[in-house]
Amino acid sequence: QAVPAGSHVRLNLQTGEREAKLPDSENGKSDTREERRRKRLGKVDVDSNSFTSQELKKALAKMKESEKAERKVRKRFPAHEEEVRKKFRPIEQLKEEFEKLNVKMETDYEIMVKLISKFNSSASTLDEKVAALYDLEYYVHQV
C-alpha cells in the first residue's frame, strides 16, 4: 500500500510486517504533504481546476514575499556566496585545466550516452553489452 511522502517506514523483524508512521509536527499532529501545501497556500481550493482571481492574487503575493525574503538573506550574507565561489570552480574551468594535463573529464551524462551506444552497437560482444548494462545501472541508480 502506498504511504504519504515523509512517512517513517520500518520492517518489524519480529513479526515480519512493514510499519509506517506519519512524522509528528510541532503541535503533536501529523501533517501530510498535502496538508502542508494547503497551509502554505492558505484557504485556496487546490483541488479545483480553476481559481478565482482573488485566490491567484493571494498566491502570487505570497510567492513575491518569499522571494523578497530570500533576496534579503542573499544580501545579508554576500560573503558566504563569495566564500563558496572561492572554494569551488566552474565545470568549464575544470575541463580546461584537465585538458592541459591531457586528462579528459566526462560527466555522468556523457558516460551514460557512451554506455548506451556501446549496448546498442552490433559490433559489441555479449560480454561487453552485459558490462555496459551493469555500468549503466550504477549511473542510473545515482540519478
UniProtKB/TrEMBL annotation:
Residue ranges of the region described as Disordered: 1-45
Any one GO MF annotation of this record: adenyl-nucleotide exchange factor activity
Cellular component annotations (GO), alphabetically ordered: endoplasmic reticulum
Coiled coil residues, start to end: 56-111
Residues annotated as signal peptide: none
InterPro entries to which the protein is assigned, alphabetical: Hsp70_NEF-Inhibitors
Sorted UniProt keywords: Coiled coil, Endoplasmic reticulum, Protein transport, Transport
Biased composition (Basic and acidic residues): 16-35
Biological processes, Gene Ontology terms: protein transport
Key word Endoplasmic reticulum present: yes
Protein name: SIL1 factor
Designated gene of the protein: Sil1
